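Hey L., structure's done. Input below.
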Amino acid sequence: MSRRVAREYAIQFLFSMDFNRTDDTDSQLEEFLQHKEEFRYDEEALLNKSSKEYAVEIIKGTIQHLDEVDNLIDFHTVGWKKDRIAKVDLAILRLAIYEIVFTNEVPDSVAANEAIELAKKYSTDESGSFVNGVLGKVIRGKGEQEV
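Output:
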């Protein structure tokens, strides 16, 4: 459960980045995590030390590879402009694609399933299917496309 919460933190931070652009993402991340700890509304949403480290790792990794991740989103969403994708779905896709393409810690199917569940929880009824379709293309094309 703790990695799921770490992913929830990550998509919340990535979502907020689309509205609060800054060059100092480290300070922004520190402030975000501090706020989450101070104003926790749900005891299940607490991060232990290893979950917090994982959240920071996947947030920073996604940001570091954001251009490559966004290129993959563009490549696999033919007919869609990135601006038309709901911001929460975009944050979920960015995180999942980072985990699928740039890490070996999580099996692709787990990263995709987690993303689909997050889309169902935080977005529209159709978002789970949309995220599933895009990530399925990313997984099938993994290794074939140039990042």
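The chain has a mean pLDDT of 86. The radius of gyration is 15 Å.

-- N.
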